[in-house]
Amino acid sequence: MTNSIEEFETHSKVIFVIGSNTTACHPLIASRIIKAKENGAKLIVADPRNIQLSRYADFTVHQRLGSDVALLNGMMHIIIKNNWHDQAYIEQRCEDFEQLKETLHTYTPTMVEAITGIAKKDITKMAELYATQSPAALLYAMGITQHTTGVDNVKSCCNLAMLCGNVGVAGGGVNPLRGQNNVQGACDMGGLPNVFTGYQPVADPKAREKFSQAWDCELSDTPGMTITDMISAIEEGKIKGLYVIGENPKLSDPDKNHLDNAFKKLDFLITEDIFLTESAQIADVVFASASLGEREGTFTNTERRCMLTRKAVEPVGNALPDWEIISRFSTALGYEMNYDCPSDIFNEMTSLTKSYQGMSYQRLGIDGLQWPCPTPEHPGTPYLHKNIFTRGKGKFHAIDYKDPAELTCEDYPMLMTTGRMFAHFHTGTMTRVSTSLDSEQKTGYVEINPKDARRLNINTDDMILLTSRRGKIEAPARITDSVPPNNIFLPIHFGENPTNVLTSSTAFDPIAKIPEFKVGAVKIEKLIA
Amino acid sequence: MNCKFVPSVCSYCGTGCGVLFEVIDGKINSTLPLKSHPVNQGKLCIKGWSLHEYINSYMRLKAPLVKENGHFQKATWDEAITHAAKNFNRIKETHGPDAIGVLVSAKVTNEENYLAQKLARAAIGTNNVDHCARL
C-alpha cells in the first residue's frame, strides 16, 4: 500500500474499492471503510459480484469479469472531458500524460458500456464521485491482479489515482490489500527471483558486490525463475530439486493435473510446514516447523508495517523454528549459517537493506514501524511519494483493454471466478483444522445465479459437475444472486473440490506471471444422484 | 497456575492485526485483540479470534519425516537434514545449481525469508527463488 489503513478513516473523502471482497478477506480494513463512510466519506465499489461491501456503498457497479481496464479508462475519459483532473499536479509531478490522453480518447461511455456491461450514466456518475472530492483512496486486491492483464489493471489504477492528484497525499493512494500475513515481507526480503532484499536487483553489479561481500561467496547474476516458470521447468526436466517452505502449491497453483504430472518428475522434494499438506504428502523429506507463537520474528503487513511477534510457548514435539531449520540445512549443504537468535538475523538484514536500516527489535515495540525507515531516528513512513515520486516523475501508462484469455463459447458457456470466503484462508491448511472456523463452512461449494439454477433445474446442495478445458470437479450448489447470471464463483479453500483442477496454467500475465484465477470458461451440469 | 499474555500479530491475511495470546501453563488458551494496536484497535475477525486453534491442532507435524519405500518414517533432525542435503548436493553436482528451486513463504517471518533466499543464493548458488505472492 502507498498509504496506511488508519488514513481511510481519518483522511479519505472518497474510498474506491475495486476487485476486493474486503469484508470477507480483510475484515478489519473493511471495518475502517465502513467507519469512514459513517464519518461522511463516499464509498464506491466495483466488483463483478454483489459483495457485502457493495451494500454499504454510495455507488456500486458490477463490471464483467476481466473488463477492469476498460472501466478505468472509461472513468478517466469522462474525468478529462469534464476537466475534473488535477492539471497542476499532473504538470508538476507526472510524465507521459499526452500519450494517456490519446489512448483514452476512444474509451467513450458507449464503447465502455459495450465492454463492461455498465450503463453509460453509471460510468459517468462513478467518475464524478471519484474525481470531484479529494483525497480519494483506491483499494484493490486479487480481483485486479489475478488476470492475464494484471499489470495493465494495476497501472490503470495508478493512472486514475495520479490523474486526480491522489498519490502522495494522506488518505489517498493506490492500495493493494495483501492476502497473506507476510507477503509484503517475503517480497521485501528478496523472496523473488530477480532481487535481493529491499528490491536490489541481482543483475546490478553494485548490489551483487555488496551481498557477495556480506555473505562471503560468489553470486549468480542471472535472475531466476518465478514459481509459474519453475513448474514448466520441472516438467521439462530442468529443475530436479525443489525446497518448499510454508506453502501448498498442489492446491494453490493453477491446473492441478498438469502440476501433479510435473511434481512426479521431481528428483527430490523437500517441504517445510506445520501440517502434512497436500504438497507435503508427496515430498521426500518433510521438515516440521514451529508456528506463530512458538518462535520470535517479524512480519510486515500490507501497509509496510514491520511488527515483532514473540514466543509464547515451546514448539510442539520436535518441531523447530524455520530460521533454525534453514540455518542447519544450509550448514549441511556446505555453507555455514550460525545465528543465536532471530534478532541477529534481523540486524544482518537491516545492515543490507536501506528501507529497514533504522529498525531494531527494541524500536519495533508493539506498534512496529512502517518502511522506509532508513535511520534509527526515523519515525517510519505512513504514506509514500510525498512531494516527489520514488522514481522522480509519476509515469502514466497508455493502456488498451484486452480480453481475458478465455471467453465463453458453445462448449464452455459460463464464466468462472475464484476467491476466498470469510471463514477460511487460502488452501485451508490453517483454518479447516480449527473447530470454530470449520463449523462455519465444512465443504466447498459453487455459487450459481437463480436464473441459471432455474434454467438448469438446479436446487440448493445439488451436486454440480464443473468442467473446464483442464479437468472436472464436483461441488454442491449454492444459489445466490451475489453472482451475475452466466457466472459462477468457487472458493479456493477445499481440497476435495479443488478449483485448481479447472484453472489454466497457460493463462497468466506476461510480466508478473500471475495466473488468471479470476476468469475462466466452464460448463456446468447437474449430477443426478 | 501460571498465566501470561504475549503480544503477537495475526498470521492469516495481510492486515496485520495485533493480538495477545493468553498462555496458561505453557499452552495458548485463547487469542485476544490488542486494544492499543494501530491496525485493529481492539477488534478481530472470526479468523483472528480463532488464531490459537490451528496452533493447538492435533494435526500439527511434530517431527521431521523421511520417505522410505513410499512411506513416511519419523526421523531425527540430523537424519532428515543430512538426507536432504546429500540429495540436493547430488543434484547440484550433476545438473548445476539452477536445477534447484526454492519457494520461500508469505507465512514465515522476515528473518526466515531472508535466510531462505540467502540459502538459495549463497548455499545453492541459484536465483530460482519465489513465493506465493502471485497466488
Describe the structure.
The complex is a heterodimer of chains A (529) and B (135). Helices cover 32% and strands 16% of the residues of chain A. With 529 residues, chain A is α/β, with parallel strands linked by helices. In chain A, a hairpin with a 4-residue loop joins strand 10 (297-300) and strand 11. In chain A, helix 4 crosses helix 8 and helix 4 runs parallel beside helix 10 (150-163). Chain B has 135 residues and is an alpha+beta fold. Chain B has helices spanning 46-49, 51-55, 77-95, 110-124; strands spanning 3-9, 18-24, 27-33, 65-68, 71-74, 100-103, 129-130. In chain B, the strands form 3 sheets. Chain B has a 3-stranded antiparallel β-sheet. Chain B has a two-stranded antiparallel ribbon with strand order 4-5. The model of chain B has no long low-confidence stretch (mean pLDDT 97). At the A-B interface, helix 3, helix 11, helix 13, strand 7 and strand 8 of A face strand 1, strand 2, helix 1, helix 2 and strand 4 of B. Chain B: This is Formate dehydrogenase major subunit. Chain B: It holds the Pfam family Molybdopterin.
